[in-house]
Amino acid sequence: MQRIYEPQDVLEGELLLAMLASEGIQAHLIGEHLLGGVGELPACGLLGLLVDDVQAERAQQLIATYNIAQPLANDEPEDFQGVLLC
């Protein structure tokens, strides 16, 4: 298994798990239970997405595509300009 990505928060981690699952890639989110220890533990690097070695490259490509996604033109509310809504 390889750690391929560090989500910013549990919400992003769960979103990416679902996205990868929809593409047939089984992933695991680790570290979510450590977040209660922030203050005692470092605040970053606790969360990680793990995938099988064989699927790592494809999963990284999908996550890279997710990270560069832009909203469709004229498809965002005026009060959320520049915010990507998923």
Describe this structure in words.
This protein has 86 residues and is an alpha+beta fold. It has one domain (2-80): Hypothetical protein rpa1041 (Alpha-Beta Plaits), CATH 3.30.70. Helices cover 29% and strands 14% of the residues. The chain contains two helices and three strands; from the N terminus they run βαββα. It has helices spanning 10-22, 56-67; strands spanning 2-5, 27-30, 48-51. The longest helix is centred in the N-terminal third of the chain and has 13 residues, at 10-22. The two termini are 28 Å apart.
The number of strands is 3
Q: The biggest beta sheet, please? A: 3 strands, antiparallel
The geometry reads as globular
Distance between the termini: 28 Å
- Which percent band covers the strand fraction? 5-15%
Radius of gyration: 15 Å
Backbone structural class: alpha+beta
Tally of individual helices: 2
Give the spatial strand order of the biggest sheet.
Answer: 1-3-2
Number of domains: 1
Organism: Pseudomonas aestuarii
Domain DUF2007: 1-65
Protein name: DUF2007 domain-containing protein
Annotate the secondary structure layout:
Layout: E1 2-5, H1 10-22, E2 27-30, E3 48-51, H2 56-67
Any descriptors?
globular, three-stranded antiparallel β-sheet, 86 residues, 3 strands, 2 helices
Short summary:
It comes from Pseudomonas aestuarii. It contains two helices and three strands.
